[in-house]
Amino acid sequence: MHDWATTGSLALGCLVVLYIGRRALRSRNPYPFPPGPPGLPWVGNVIGINTSAPWLTYNEWARTYGDLLYSRLLGKDIIIINSEKIANDLLENRSKNYSDRPYLITNELCGIEFNSSFMPYGDRWRLHRRFFHQTFRFDAVPRFIPYQQSRASHLLQRLHETPEKLSDHIFEYTASVILNSTYNYDSASSRKDNLIDIAANVLNVIVPALRPDVAVILGAFPWLHSLPSWFPGMSFKREMAVARAYSKQYLEQPFEYALQQSGNAAPSMVHDALRRMEEKGISPEESWMQALKEASGTAFLGTRLTKQSNSVLMTFFLMMMVNPAVQEKAQSQIDAVVGRDRLPTMDDRPLLPLIDAIFRETLRYSPILPLSAPHAAVDDDVYSGYHIPKGAIILANLWSMAHDESRYPNPDAFIPERFINDDGTLKPDDMEHIMFGFGRRICVGRHFAVTTVWGAIAKVLAVYKILRPLDKNGVEMPVEPKFSSGIGVHPLPFKCRIVPRFEGMDAEKLEQLVAASTA
Ligand code: HEM
Known about the structure:
two-stranded antiparallel sheet; binds protoporphyrin IX containing FE; oxidoreductase activity, acting on paired donors, with incorporation or reduction of molecular oxygen
């Protein structure tokens, strides 16, 4: 007890000194912080924030204080950007200063600090980014489309067998396409050591251990981390230690698999990078191999953690169920352009604008990363007469941008037609310029994500109706879309019926349809 009292007083003393010191330093800066709601000393704006959906609070604040906001949380400066223009001005045009990431001790404690997305701006991150770019840049992604299409057809078959396992099938689809493009792993032919099942198990351990509340508290009071795991309230240290062991193991396993393949393996992130070194006649150093292992681990494990493509596809199913008219309109377009004797492919994309419109509206309606990934300011900066302090966390409120009423009237309604011109063609606003983030840290897997999601949406709509569940009297039940809270947003579990659109569409007919589409 005595020790605690001493530690507590010391910590409090340090905080007071820090607080006064920082205020003194700031008072020398001639520019004010951007406007924002008043907060309590040091703890800042902890009161009044909707903790499960802070983007909604920031959106409200913007109505009073404007699109560039200043907030403070437990001693941290936070700058919130609510408009695309400011996001471009800062994160894009001044990207040199805004491409860092804030440090989160929980990433290290859970063993996922290797993840390129969390890495500080610097040479190690640049090398990771190069690996990604080689494989996932716009003109490299078409190499993966045939595999994506075959897995999307497989998804149709899985949905036919067990439609009630929709979310498992979506997980399998998105995991299999990324495993293939990262490690040249074919989940269809490697069922015994199925990395997809292993990944699902690993995530069940890592995701619960990655607690944002712990990240905030440890960020503010780092000395707490030195307390033993048996100490009251510190049991998370044990969970994080287990998560750490799992993530390290998972980083190694698929990478080893990729290295064991022959020199003429199909394209993948690992093989693209190795081949490039071979062409240059360079023998890779250990640190280079480690970086490749980490970047490929990010492509697979990282995208499993935040479940981006998964969440978009689950949102698509949910939206189709509650908007049957939208679904039918898109299906009529598929019937008119593709017919019913084969499945749509990426080649049909220019003639299926409604599929793109549905994809865009799905991204817009419920952004899966509403506050994007946090950036951090490398140095002090001044923007529009406001001081943005070095080290500030920069949050781009993608939700706010996607729900801007002046641009997207009736923003809380799901209206894909908002992206279609009167002549039926697509408008230039593709949502990708917002939903994949900004500047040098923009999503490096965006082109791959687009083909993954588009391919699945088009095929699913060609074959299935997505309907509301029935009650015990056979009457359709009302469904209210509900979404998770947290950094990554996804629909909460929901029931739906997935039934073939055409009479007599049994497993055999579906197989024939798939075969006709790959011939
Ligand atoms: C529809 C699906 C996806 C969406 C909506 C999405 C969205 C985002 C967003 C908003 C960011 C933050 C950008 C920023 O900091 O400004 C991001 C970063 C990132 N995304 Fe995606 N993403 C998707 C799919 C993918 C896929 C399939 C991959 C892998 C192939 C991927 C890899 C990454 C990586 C590595 C980063 C971190 C980039 C960095 O820090 O340099 N994403 N994504």
